[in-house]
Design a protein that fits this description.
With about 550 residues, the chain is an alpha+beta fold. The chain is globular, with a radius of gyration of 23 Å. The strands form six sheets. Strands 1, 8, 9, 10, 11, 12, 14 and 19 form an eight-stranded mixed beta sheet that branches. A four-stranded antiparallel beta sheet has the order 4-5-7-6, covered by helices on one side.
Length: about 550
């Protein structure tokens, strides 16, 4: 049984929705005309932090790491699951899956990719301190069958295992052993390893250099297996990039100035206040699509005394009435109108309705009602409110949203002090659960389980609740989430996902905020396919009039 048979009926309607949205966000169809090789310079507010593909599970890291590394499965231009380093897969028993690996694949150092590398990579992913382990809970072991075949042995049946394997990078076992990086980098401990600035993947681009907070340079991997691929129309499926430079520029004004002057060719996060102007600029092209992910607030649910607060001896956020007060105090539509300039939609859902099983009716928010917020605080024993620190990353639109929320909360009595941090300081607070009150975003897969496990399950170091930043714990919810992973009947599985999300909505360990409109701005000479998870696939990018013949 081919892999897609296990999920096709369940996801068909989702693919149709996503396919339509993605086609609308595609700037140009890739053509078969011969073109010159090109250099692409991309600016973003974020630095990838590390080149270790298992050390982090962050959007800004994945954007770069997965140009260099590949997974067993990938996604096509319409965001549908497709083969990558595995060519096919099938269930061989109730608790086993067998994957056939692609022959003839070479790492960037010229060595062959084999089953030994796949088994090593999957074991490295599952072992601490990898931040990707949450995707593989339930995998008991991975065994080599032959040089191009591996088998997953599971604790319980899992009908959608292939869906969980995107962004699980394949690495060279020999290369990792040679450079002392058999284990993933411990990013939270600020560990320095060879994989921080070096990489050896199988992807379409190889790492040339990485200067943190300055520049990442990627070069075309000429031996990549995918350059020979053609689409259903018989035309090549690839672009013409020879070199790509990722340049972190935190200042909004400076990023746009670099685009206007031609110093960069593409900006992945143009400031919202400038999007209308960019649309009118004949030199600039925009692509846009709705975000599959969204932003949240979450609370310290573990400590008996709230650490960054003026409340002593107790933790107000353990009271549902206080959490509901926070919800009612925030005017999300005003934030979208003023900070995002209309480039977003409010959400009451905890996962996008495009995630399989997420009920559409949950997308309706509780009303903005400051009076109700004050009354709930008084009922909870805080008639005069309390003080707390809100952690936020220091990128303009996130910081501005947090400033607006801090002011709204202060008006109802939750005196909120904003603490902005650079990405290198902020993201460890998230994954280590050290903040009292924190804003962050999450981009799910189409299958819900990884998000349910990553966000809402009780945290432990084995890969459960990895991004449960408030260390929320609910034993009944844990049991349901575990059942979602092992339920083979897809109809029942959807119903269980909906039940989990309704229970989360009742308990409010998070406050859902909004989903953005994703916008990329680029020179007219650039064409790209935009996915709804805000990652760019460089293999498809073309630049007209490249800078040198090949």
């Amino acid at each position: 049984m081919h892999a897609l048979l296990a999920t096709k009926s369940r996801l068909a309607s989702v693919w149709r929705w996503l396919g339509r949205a993605t086609l609308l966000s595609t700037l140009a169809v890739l053509s078969a005309a011969p073109v010159q090789a090109a250099t692409l310079r991309i600016a973003s507010a974020f630095d990838p932090q590390t080149m270790d593909p298992h050390a982090l599970a962050l959007l800004y890291h994945s954007r770069i790491a997965f140009q260099v590394h590949e997974s067993l499965v990938g996604r096509d231009e319409k965001f549908r699951l497709e083969p990558a380093l595995a060519t096919s897969w099938q269930m061989t028993g109730p608790t086993s899956w067998r994957f056939q690996l692609r022959p003839g694949v070479k790492f960037h150092d010229g060595t062959a990719f084999t089953a030994d590398d796949a088994v090593f990579s999957l074991e490295r992913t599952m072992a601490p301190p990898s931040q990707r382990a949450f995707q593989l809970k339930g995998v008991k072991a991975v065994k080599k069958v032959d040089e191009l075949t591996i088998e997953f042995q599971l604790e319980a049946p899992d009908a959608v295992l292939p869906e969980k394997l995107q962004f699980i990078a394949m690495m060279s076992k020999a290369w990792a052993g040679k450079h002392g990086v058999v284990k993933a980098q411990d990013f939270n401990a600020k560990q320095e390893t060879y994989t921080v600035r070096n990489a050896n993947g199988t992807g379409p681009f190889r790492l040339e250099s990485f200067q943190p907070d300055v520049r990442v340079v990627l070069k075309r991997h000429e031996a990549w297996w995918g350059w020979a691929q053609k689409g259903a129309d018989g035309k090549p499926r690839h672009g013409n990039l020879a070199e790509v430079q990722f340049i972190p520029i935190r200042s909004d004004a400076t990023r746009l100035a670099a685009l206007a002057s031609g110093e960069v060719d593409m900006v992945l996060d143009p400031p919202y206040q400038d999007i209308s102007r960019l649309k009118a600029d004949s030199r600039i092209a925009l692509v846009q699509t709705a975000d599959l992910g969204q932003q949240y607030l979450t609370f310290d649910q573990a400590r008996d005394e709230l650490e960054f607060s003026d409340v002593k001896g107790k933790n107000p956020f353990k009271d549902l009435r206080v959490r509901r007060a926070v919800y009612h105090a925030i005017n999300v539509q005003l934030i979208i109108d003023k900070v995002l300039r209309g480039q977003g939609v409010p959400t009451g859902a905890f996962l996008s309705p495009r995630v399989d099983g997420s009920p559409a009716e949950l997308d309706k928010r509780l009303p903005f009602d400051p009076a109700r917020a004050k009354a709930l605080l008084a009922e909870a024993g805080y008639p005069n409110g309390f003080g707390v620190t809100l952690d936020c990353v220091n990128v303009a639109w996130r910081e501005n949203s947090c400033q607006a929320m801090a002011a709204m909360l202060t008006q109802v009595g939750i005196r909120t002090t904003l603490r902005s941090s650079a990405t290198g300081q902020f993201f460890p607070k998230l994954s280590q659960g050290t903040a009292s009150f924190i804003e962050y975003g999450w981009t799910p897969q189409i299958d819900a389980w990884g998000s349910l496990n990553g966000l809402f399950r009780t945290f432990d170091k084995s890969g459960l609740g990895t991004f449960n930043a408030g260390r929320y714990s609910n034993a009944g919810l844990d049991r349901l989430i575990d059942q979602v992973r092992t339920e083979p009947d897809l109809t029942r599985r959807r119903a269980m996902v909906a039940t989990v999300l309704r229970l989360v909505a009742e308990d409010l360990p998070y406050i859902p905020l909004y989903r953005r409109t994703l916008t990329w701005a680029m020179q007219k000479k650039v064409s790209a396919v935009q996915w709804p998870n805000d990652t760019i696939e460089l293999r498809w990018v073309r630049v007209k009039g490249g800078d040198g013949a090949r």
